[in-house]
Design goal:
By secondary structure, this protein is α/β, with parallel strands linked by helices. It folds into 2 domains: 202 residues, NAD(P)-binding Rossmann-like Domain (Rossmann fold), CATH 3.40.50.720; 118 residues, no CATH class. It has a 7-stranded parallel beta sheet, with helices on both faces. Strands 7-9-11 form a 3-stranded mixed beta sheet. The longest helix is centred in the first third of the chain and has 18 residues. The radius of gyration is 20 Å and the shape is globular. The two termini are 31 Å apart.
């Protein structure tokens, strides 16, 4: 397996931190000297340094700073978990990887984290079910509707082609579970619902249920690592316009999740209502959940139709399924108390922060 230097952005975040931890785990055989982590704050640098990797404090919006980091540290692969919306961050790394390729004649790689809500009817996707291998880039390009996630996907795919960088886009669904990173341990939806439910003494749901695509954080981190392993082994994976991958392990229903949380919170004496009630308004939901009003319903009702039944690409074998997830609500509640550290990370990541 060829040695390459790997940089993970958003390494103090929920997904990025878990990717770093998985790269360093005993069964992956990646050397710490080849792992680099990009973070935003000095305290995050200090948190990750004991791992033995090189931690870079970077302003990802600064193109020159990003270029210097990539070239000086001889970065070959960037796993970008820092933002799904702000295409500038990915563009800066792709441009830098293109310069490195020009200088060294070595192939360089960019793995971008997108989100699957861009492929829901509620998110304006008119084409229905999609899967790995479908012409997703072509469909996004034809749609050309300016939806931020899809706009970023097409823009960075085109830039990577122009700069000679091998690119992949990973569609990330609803992510749950406790992360293995050093900084942020939790995602957004479930901890926000737990916090709001305790404050209101009742668990609420939207009046529309939805089966949504989901994955446990440990399985998602392994998905990224599998792509890297394939690269290092010299396998020519579909990339660029054909390089869309969907890290979907299973589907689940939000009403089932809400009822599971209600059962656990009621048993702990943290809510008074034994059943889940419907949010009186989206405004109340947005305020209670501390989420943007324009996204709050989409996050809880979007039906993302990813065909994962021909499982799984890359030889991925996720360990978590719907049954195991729904049986883990007590752990979700316990860890929401154990690891809560300010605002959790989904919209931080979407907006380009850690």
């Amino acid at each position: 397996m060829e040695n390459m230097n790997i940089l993970v952005t958003g390494a103090a975040g929920y997904i990025g931190g878990s990717v770093v931890a998985t790269l360093l785990s005993g069964d992956t055989h990646f050397a710490a000297k080849n792992i680099f982590a990009a973070v935003r704050a000095e305290e995050q640098v200090r948190s990750l340094q004991p791992l033995g990797i090189k931690v870079l404090q970077l302003d990802l919006r600064n193109e020159q700073e990003v270029a210097e980091a990539v070239l000086q540290n001889e970065i070959d692969i960037v796993i970008n978990t820092a933002s799904s919306i702000d295409g500038r961050l990915a563009a800066h790394f792709i441009s830098a990887l293109g310069k490195r390729r020009e200088v060294t004649s070595k192939d360089t790689y960019h793995i971008h984290s997108s989100v699957t809500t861009g492929y829901s009817k509620e998110g304006g996707w008119p084409y229905g079910t999609i899967k790995d291998g479908d012409p997703v880039y072509k469909l996004e390009k034809e749609l050309n509707d300016g939806f931020p996630i899809r706009k970023t996907n097409t823009a960075i795919t085109e830039l990577a082609k122009e700069r000679g960088v091998t690119s992949f886009i990973v569609g990330v669904p609803f992510v749950y579970g406790t992360g293995s990173g050093e900084w942020k341990k939790l995602s957004q939806n479930i901890p926000a619902t737990i916090k709001a439910s305790i404050a209101l003494k009742t668990v609420y749901k939207f009046n529309q249920d939805s089966k949504f695509a989901a994955v446990h954080i440990s399985d998602l981190a392994e998905y990224y690592v599998l792509i890297v392993k394939k690269i290092l082994q010299g396998e020519k994976l579909p990339s660029g316009e054909e390089g869309y991958y969907f890290a979907v392990a299973h589907e689940t229903g939000w009403w089932d999740v809400a009822q599971g949380l209600a059962d656990v919170l009621r048993a702990r004496g943290l809510v008074t209502e034994p059943t889940v009630r419907v949010w009186p308004s989206d405004d109340m939901a947005a305020e209670a959940l501390d989420l943007p009003r324009q996204f709050v319903r989409l996050m809880h009702t979007a039906r993302v139709t990813i065909d994962y039944n021909n499982r799984y690409p890359l030889g991925w074998a996720p360990k978590w399924d719907e049954q195991k997830f729904l049986a883990s609500m007590d752990v979700e509640v316990a860890d929401a108390f154990r690891y809560e550290k300010g605002r959790t990370t989904l919209f931080d990541a979407l907006n380009g922060t850690n």
